[in-house]
């Protein structure tokens, strides 16, 4: 523990008791403990965020790039022809089974 042994720690505690006094020492110890706890929490959050960032960078580096093996002329689509249906008729009349077969066959 930072090269401080038990005798040195006792001397520091006695000096703190003399300098600060018995009434203020518990308050000081409490605030010091809270401060150390907040510092530990902040360092843990910082470490966690650094780990998340490094994992994200590693995953981006490991992802393979996707290239297309399809020739460029094969990816174009020609004009598509659809059966023309009267729009008003399609709105007013629900489709029948033969109409659905005709639509799926196209």
From TrEMBL:
The keyword Iron does not apply. Keywords: Cell inner membrane, Cell membrane, Membrane, Protein transport, Translocation, Transmembrane, Transmembrane helix, Transport. The keyword Transmembrane applies. It holds the Pfam family TatA_B_E. Residues 47-81 are annotated as: Disordered. It is a single-pass membrane protein. It comes from the Bacteria. It is found in: Cell inner membrane; Membrane. InterPro entries: TatA/B/E, TatA/E. One of its GO terms (cellular component) is TAT protein transport complex. GO terms for biological process: intracellular protein transport; protein transport by the Tat complex. Transmembrane segments: none annotated. One of its GO terms (molecular function) is protein transmembrane transporter activity. Forms a complex with TatC. Part of the twin-arginine translocation (Tat) system that transports large folded proteins containing a characteristic twin-arginine motif in their signal peptide across membranes. TatA could form the protein-conducting channel of the Tat system. Belongs to the TatA/E family. This is Sec-independent protein translocase protein TatA.
């Amino acid at each position: 523990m930072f090269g401080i042994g038990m005798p040195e720690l006792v001397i520091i505690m006695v000096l703190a008791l003399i300098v600060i006094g018995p009434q203020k020492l518990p308050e000081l110890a409490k605030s010091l403990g809270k401060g150390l706890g907040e510092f530990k929490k902040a360092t843990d959050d910082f470490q966690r965020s650094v780990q998340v960032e490094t994992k994200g960078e590693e995953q981006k580096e490991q992802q393979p790039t996707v290239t297309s093996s399809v020739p460029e002329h094969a990816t174009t689509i020609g004009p598509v022809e659809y059966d023309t249906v009267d729009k008003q008729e399609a709105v007013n009349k629900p489709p029948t089974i033969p109409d659905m077969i005709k639509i799926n066959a196209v």
